[in-house]
Design a protein that fits this description.
The chain is built from 14 helices and 22 strands. With 493 residues, it is α/β, with parallel strands linked by helices. It has a domain at 49-71 and 146-192 and 222-490: UDP-N-acetylmuramoyl-L-alanine:D-glutamate ligase (3-Layer(aba) Sandwich), CATH 3.40.1190.20. The strands form 5 sheets. The protein has a 10-stranded mixed sheet, with helices on both faces. A 6-stranded mixed sheet has the order 3-4-11-8-2-5. A hairpin with a 2-residue loop joins strand 20 (454-458) and strand 21 (461-467). Bound molecules: 2-acetamido-2-deoxy-beta-D-glucopyranose (NAG) (3 copies). One 2-acetamido-2-deoxy-beta-D-glucopyranose (NAG) is lined by residues 327-328. Residues 144-145, 151, 154-155, 413-414, 479, 483 line the site of one 2-acetamido-2-deoxy-beta-D-glucopyranose (NAG). GO terms for molecular function: ADP-specific glucokinase activity; metal ion binding.
Length: 493
Amino acid sequence: MEGGGRVPWVKYGSLMSFLVVLLAVWFRPPQDAVLDGRLDTVLSSLLRAEGKVGVNNVARPKVAIGFGGCVDLIVDGVSFLNKIGISYTDQPVHHDYLENAEQLAQSFAYFFAPGAAAERFVLNDTLFNELVEGARDLPGNRWSIGGNAPVMAGRMATEGCDVLLGGSFSTDFKEVLSQHITVAGEVIDEQDIHLILEYSSGANWGSYTSRRANRYIVHSDYHNPYLASMDDFAEKLNSFKPDLLVVGGLQMMDNFPFKSGERAALLSHLADLLISSTPQIGIHFEMASFVEESIMEDLLEYVIPNADSLGMNEQELPNLLSLLKGSNITVLSDPSPRVATVLDQMREVYRILNQRYKEATADSDAGGAESRGKPLTRLHVHTLAFQAMIVTRGSQWKNTMSATAKASLTANRHVCGSNDIDPSKARLIMDDSFSISLQEGSQRIPLQDTRPVSCWDEEDYEICVAPVLVCTEVYQTAGGGDNISAAGLVLQI
Ligand SMILES: *[C@@H]1O[C@H](CO)[C@@H](O)[C@H](O)[C@H]1NC(C)=O
Ligand SMILES: *[C@@H]1O[C@H](CO)[C@@H](O)[C@H](O)[C@H]1NC(C)=O
Ligand SMILES: *[C@@H]1O[C@H](CO)[C@@H](O)[C@H](O)[C@H]1NC(C)=O
């Protein structure tokens, strides 16, 4: 009886729960809608974080940026290689520089599948001219202002700064620069062309599929490696009185056939310029793709110790760290590293460089000489999935949280080629939470949609991490690092 009495109720109950489940399924937003909602929240929260502080537009900050510049000819990498008849090779080989078409194919193959950014010097004029001619009439190609210094200058001018730009430019080139940019350097007849082979995530070349969107750059630039504008730049610096000095474009010297001792002399001259600038002015050095070990050693001697701030991507960070630890150059690293990996590498670079600074100061104190170099107080690493910054507490750099948010938004704006961010063309690829270090038992930080930039204190510095709304309809990757780094700096001056 008891059991029998319960039967209808049980039946009724199951029906009820069935209905509840049905209703739940009915009303559950489709997966995409949940994700869209999440992207909208992260986007509006990042915009709020970016907008918390503004650039001082009344007294426009003054930024001096060197060196050089070029015209970028941007093409779809795979269509281009197909068109000029450079066929696919299943033999990826790493080359420091390129002398013939086969090496170009091998080198492209090396970086294309992992989707790692690379830049190589072509030591064969005939080949390079053939490449440029082939790219000139490729449908869909585009021309744009290129080179780290002009791109960073353009971004900073757009964000409200007055810029002194060091470089030798043609009259045509100067005409398209912002009115807020003043050039220091001689006028040249023709601007060097850099050929940018872009590819999207999932692009195919032979049996290779690229894991992420990126670019492979070739150039045969005989002007920029000499930093010809340096003296003019140094002279104009005195009256310009910048609030920030930025150095980039030095990768043009990588694997360039300099005469013996020529490069070190140029970089030593640059070191003098940096040392002679007012100590209170922040100096930022933007790294790039370096593969020649001896130039990295020169940078470690002449440039990096004189910089307060460094900017780099996920390839350049392990490369620098490896060299600081006395190992070889790392040509290719994981193009999509985890937050914990990057933060550990950043902590180590920060620690080693500041340790070196302390030792150098102690040495020069002991020898009675003037102390040389500066401590590293800012390190910004831009990756596809997130932006990370280490900033020394109490240093001159302001607004680290907003700057990290701005860097992250700029990544999407640049790659999508639009100032307005469209969440339907964006994707979050950072995990829902991240560990702050690979060390066992490290804290995990959840990615909060309403407060996407996470900042916390360690030792004598603050760390901030912001997710990137990764652009899914790629317009351009080249110049991304420069736009991102410049955008981050603008809020910190
Ligand atoms: C330079 O490139 C041209 C054109 O591709 C090629 O014919 C020539 O063999 C190359 N020179 C060297 C030294 O590889
Ligand atoms: C570093 O590079 C040198 C020269 O290319 C090579 O002989 C050596 O084996 C490399 N060392 C490591 C640890 O890879
Ligand atoms: C990146 O900088 C270049 C040069 O200033 C500019 O033309 C381009 O529009 C920038 N990208 C974005 C998204 O602002």
